[in-house]
Amino acid sequence: MKNILKYTFAVVAVGFASCEPEFDNPVNEEGFYTSGTADFSRYVAVGNSLTAGFADGALYITGQNNSYPNIMAEQFSLAGGGEFTQPLMNDNLGGLLLGGNQITENRFVLAVGANGNPGPVRLEGNPTTEVTNKLVGPFNNMGVPGAKSFHLVAPGYGNAGGVAQGAANPYFARFASSDNATIIADATAQNPTFFSLWIGNNDILAYATAGGSGVDQTGNSDPNTYGNNDITDPNVFASVYSQQVAALAANGAKGVLVNIPEVTSIPYFTTVPRNAIPLDAATAGALNAQFAAYNNAVLPGLVGAGVISQEEAALRMINFSAGQNFPIMVDDDLTDLTQILQGPPFSLPAQTAGLLGQLRQVKPDDLIVLPASSVLGSVPDPSNPQGVVGVTIPLSDDLVLAVTEQARVTAASMAYNATIQALANANGLAFVDARAALNRVANGGISYDAGLLTNQFVTGGAFSLDGVHPTARGYAYVANLAIQAINETYDATIPTVNIGDYPTITLTNN
What is the pLDDT of residues 331-388, one digit of tens each? Predict the structure, then answer.
């Protein structure tokens, strides 16, 4: 069976001249732009990959130069903004080296594969960015890819000696002021006059992109016990986030806070259709015959024995028909029946019991994640042409974000956002509702003078080839949202940028 997925994927603020010979804010050939009650002379941006300029599955120079804080800093320079420095990578490949060994992959570009279909491929080449080659700061862009909220206050998060063991972050290790430094301390040591803070996405994103293959740690206040793919307890988030805002604003600095988008509206979760398996009537009938005993005997037997509920039995039913079908999957949220199915009265062979133990069919409200596109509908074993992923071989649980898992992500993000909004209000800080903004991108798109910005994978312009992070054009949109919020909050007249002037994706492997 062939692979079922084919990839397809200004507002200007003007100041007013005065007849008086003295001005509180700078004047230049671009016009009259004012900082209002804000002071942009030392702007420090704090966050994760979204602040760093991560795109196309990697951090690379061009992406960093098009990060939303760098775009903002360029506009701030028209109203007294100072120099804005970033811990730039060595090249545009994006891979990282540790002791000469590559530990992160190069970035994606769009290329045509052997099947003639366009899709993301990793850029070829040998990266030159060595983690242990320490950069001398300080740096205004304190965005660290992979950082969660509590990582910003974690000593040793930038210790290169802990990178190989997963105890430290390789990106922060490149520019941390010391082995025991924290991100927030290195940021506040610069005594910022203005700051941006966008953190918390990774506190739910890793769980979501792993198809819910993690733990919702709500109620667990010890992040030292969390796994990489776990959801951060909202109370932990609220505690560390309030510390960060207090530290950044301690000396009277103004700032802008950005909330957490609904991650399930990004192309990583919206590109692969749920009913992705095309079947003719004969094939569908043959498959239904194979699953008849499971549907009509095994499941009712489990209900009768009190092992599962009638609702769970209905969820596990497998049915195919002519046309587009929902693939089968393994769901670790369901009761694992493998051992029970091997015993009486079912006495199924171990292999069959293992297949059926957590089996169900993808439902209309489930989300199939982007990496599934490379395997769904494929035949991984040429000696077994009947083994088709999604049909007779179930999708692994990490490739599907179930409705129950989506609910956990939403609950946590809403709790985080309540904290962010409350702290913005309490401290008189500018606030960007990224959740609402991304929903606009996903539902109809955002118009600009050169076209429409949507969340369509590859072709929509807003998202890079990893399906998660924005393109330069998407980051320009974020920068404009922040500038608009800053102007409104601090009576500034910082001009926004023309997002159509910024690029989207790299089209070739050259």
Answer: 988 999 999 999 988 889 998 888 889 999 999 999 999 999 999 999 998 888 889 9
For residue 19, give Cα distances in angstroms to 22, 23, 79.
Answer: 9, 10, 19
Enter the tokens of residue 419.
Answer: 């904290």
For 282-329, what is each residue's pLDDT tens digit?
Answer: 999 999 999 999 999 999 999 999 999 999 999 999 999 999 999 999
- Both 433 and 455 in a single domain? yes
Domain boundaries, position 306: 277-361+367-401
Structural domain includes residue 18: no
Q: Which two tokens stand for residue 102?
A: 């590559």
Cα gap 126→461, rounded to integer Å: 28
Among 351, 386, 401, the domain-final residue is 401
Looking at the structure of the chain, the number of domains it has is 2
Are residues 114 and 68 located together in one domain of the fold? yes
Q: Which two tokens stand for residue 38?
A: 């804000």
Cα separation, 171 vs 145, in Å, equals 7
Task: Please indicate, yes or no, whether residues 410 and 397 belong to a single structural domain of this protein.
Answer: no
Query: Any residues with CB less than 8 A from the CB of 212 and at least 6 apart, and which?
Result: 332, 333, 397, 398, 401, 402, 404, 405, 408
0.85 exceeded by pTM = yes
